[in-house]
Design goal:
InterPro entries: D-amino_acid_oxidase_CS, DAO, FAD-dep_OxRdtase. Keywords: FAD, Flavoprotein, Oxidoreductase. The protein has 2 domains: 214 residues, NAD(P)-binding Rossmann-like Domain (Rossmann fold, 3-Layer(aba) Sandwich), CATH 3.40.50; 154 residues, D-Amino Acid Oxidase, Chain A, domain 2. Strands 3, 4, 5, 9, 10, 11, 12, 13 and 14 form a 9-stranded mixed sheet that branches. Strands 7-6-2-1-8-16-15 form a 7-stranded mixed sheet, covered by helices on one side. The chain has 6 helices and 16 strands. 24% of the residues lie in helices and 28% in strands. The protein has 370 residues and is of the alpha/beta class. The longest helix has 20 residues. 44% of the residues are buried. The structure holds flavin-adenine dinucleotide (FAD). The site of flavin-adenine dinucleotide (FAD) has 42 residues, from helix 1, strand 9 and strand 14.
Length: 370
C-alpha cells in the first residue's frame, strides 16, 4: 500500500478522528470532511464535545461491542504507558447500588471481567442506603483536551481536512454537487481535494440518519443531560444506582472539572437543558456524592453550593442493532466505490473508539484489495 491512495473520512468526532489515524497508519492518504471540528462552538449536532467520558463497559450482552471496548481500553493503557501526560487519566471508580436486581448483578459480573483490579466493596465500605458496591480502576478522558489532541495527531501525520455540510456522501465525488468546502484549520494551505477517493469512511454519528446515501432510520438519539462541576479535589468516579432506576454518575477530568450526570432519554431531540432535570441531577448528585460540594459546604447539602460551570446536552448516536461496522457500495457520477460505515456507538463512542477504528480500517483494506 502506498501513501498516495486517497481515502475520505466524513466526520470529525471521536469516531472519525480515530478511524482517520488508523487509516493513515495503514498507509492511506486521508482527508476528513466535516461540518463540525474539535474546538468549534459546541453544537447539538456534534456529540463528541458533550461526552462525559470514561470507560465503563456497557456490553453485557453485545459480544462485538465488548471486543471493541476491550481493544480500546488496551490502546488507551498503552498510550498512557508511552506518555503519562496525555489528556487521559486512570482513576478509581466506585459502583454504589441501592437495591441489586438481576440486571445489576449481571452488570457487576460483567465489570468484574473487564477491569483487572475489580473488587466488591466490604459492607463497612458502603455508605448508608447502599446495599452493594464495587470498585475498580478505569480511564477518564478529558474531552475538551482530548479531541484537539487527536486532531493534532491526524494533522501531524499529514492528514488534510475540509469543513462543509454534505447533503450526501456522493456529493464529494462531483464538482457540481460539492457544497462549499473550506480548508481546516483555516490557516492551512490545503489544495482542493481530489474527486476520486478509493473509498469513503462514514463516521457521521447521529448525522447518519439524515445524510444522503445513508439515511439510516435505525439511528436515534439517547439524550444525555449532564453538568460540568468545578471540584478539583474529587479523586474517584462514581456510578450510583437509585432504586427507582435513576443513575447518578460522576467522572473526574484532568482539568479538575467533574461531569455530573445524567439522563438517558430515548428518542428525545430536545437540544437544551431542562430546569427540572438540572435540579434532579444536582439533588441526586449531592445525595450520592456529597464530596462534590466544597468541604465547608458539605454539611448543609445545598444544591446552590455546587460550582456549576456548564449545563450540557448531547445526543448519543444510538442504533437499533448496535454499531454499524459494514461495507456497502456507492454508485454515483459514473464511479463505484466502497463505503465503510463506522457509526451508531450510542453511549460508548469513546470507550469503543480505537477498537472500532481498527475494525473499520480492516474492512477498508479488504474492500480496497477486492
Ligand atoms: C452526556 C453524554 C455522556 C457520554 N459519556 C460517554 C462515556 O462516558 N463514554 C463513552 O465512550 N461515550 C460516551 N458518550 C457517547 C459518545 O459521546 C458518542 O458515542 C460519540 O461521541 C459519538 O461520536 P461520533 O464521532 O460517532 O459522532 P459525533 O461526535 O457526533 O461526530 C459526527 C461528525 O460527523 C459530522 N457530520 C455529520 N453529518 C454531516 C454532514 N451531513 N456533513 C458534514 N459533516 C457531517 C459532524 O460534523 C461531526 O464532525 C456520551 C455522550 C453523551 C451525550
Amino acid at each position: 500500500m502506498v501513501n498516495e491512495v486517497p481515502v475520505f473520512v466524513v466526520g470529525a468526532g471521536v469516531a472519525g478522528l480515530s478511524t482517520a489515524i488508523r487509516a493513515q497508519e495503514a498507509g492511506f492518504n486521508v482527508t476528513i470532511f466535516a461540518e463540525t471540528f474539535p474546538g468549534d462552538k459546541k453544537t447539538i449536532k456534534y456529540t463528541s464535545c458533550w461526552a462525559a467520558a470514561n470507560h465503563i463497559s456497557v456490553a453485557t450482552t453485545n459480544a462485538l461491542l465488548h471486543q471493541l471496548e476491550r481493544e480500546t481500553l488496551s490502546v488507551f493503557l498503552e498510550m498512557l504507558k508511552k506518555d503519562p501526560l496525555i489528556p487521559v487519566m486512570i482513576r478509581p471508580h466506585k459502583e454504589h447500588v441501592q437495591v441489586l436486581g438481576p440486571e445489576g448483578q449481571k452488570q457487576l459480573d460483567h465489570l468484574s471481567n473487564c477491569y483487572s483490579d475489580f473488587r466488591l466493596l466490604e459492607p463497612n465500605e458502603l455508605p448508608e442506603g447502599v446495599t452493594k458496591g464495587a470498585m475498580y480502576s478505569t480511564i477518564c478522558i478529558d474531552v475538551p483536551r482530548y479531541l484537539p489532541w487527536v486532531l493534532e495527531r491526524f494533522l501531524a501525520l499529514g492528514g488534510r481536512a475540509f469543513r462543509g455540510t454534505l447533503p450526501s456522501l456522493s456529493a464529494l465525488l462531483s464538482e457540481e454537487d460539492r457544497p462549499s468546502l473550506t480548508p481546516f484549520p483555516p490557516t492551512s494551505t490545503n489544495v482542493h481535494p481530489s474527486l476520486n477517493p478509493v473509498a469513503i469512511i462514514n463516521c457521521t454519528g447521529i448525522g447518519a440518519r439524515s445524510i444522503g446515501d445513508v439515511l439510516d432510520a435505525d439511528v436515534y438519539p439517547t439524550r444525555g443531560e449532564v453538568l460540568i462541576i468545578r471540584a478539583p479535589w474529587i479523586k474517584h468516579g462514581l456510578s450510583y444506582y437509585y432504586e427507582d432506576g435513576h443513575l447518578t454518575y460522576a467522572i473526574p477530568r484532568q482539568s479538575g472539572d467533574v461531569i455530573l450526570g445524567g439522563s438517558f432519554q430515548v428518542d428525545d431531540w430536545h437540544p437544551i437543558s431542562r430546569p427540572e432535570m438540572v435540579k434532579l441531577i444536582k439533588e441526586r448528585g449531592i445525595a450520592a456524592y456529597p464530596e462534590l460540594l466544597p468541604p465547608d459546604k458539605r454539611e448543609a447539602r445545598n444544591i446552590a453550593d455546587l460550582d456549576v460551570v456548564e449545563e450540557c446536552v448531547g445526543l448519543r448516536p444510538t442504533r437499533k442493532g448496535g454499531v454499524r461496522l459494514e461495507v456497502t457500495s456507492l454508485n454515483a457520477h459514473s464511479k463505484s466505490l466502497p463505503i465503510v460505515h463506522n457509526y451508531g456507538h450510542g453511549g460508548a463512542g469513546y470507550q469503543s473508539s480505537w477498537g472500532s477504528a481498527k475494525a473499520a480500517v480492516d474492512l477498508l483494506k479488504s474492500a480496497v484489495n477486492e
